[in-house]
Fold S1 motif domain-containing protein.
Amino acid sequence: MSRFEELNVGDVLVGQVTKVVPFGVFVRIADDADGLLHGETGPQEGSSVTVRILDIDRERLRASLARA
């Protein structure tokens, strides 16, 4: 898995769901960061999901994701 600083908007990758919340799921996209897949309710914690990076906030180590 990559480090967060190596990721770019538009990258497509497979991540693991780390947490399911009412507004979406958090997906581990790098060794040191998760991203939010907003509005998703289907994936369960621990499952793999293919995502595309929509936006990156490098200061907060956050990313917005979409299904790829």
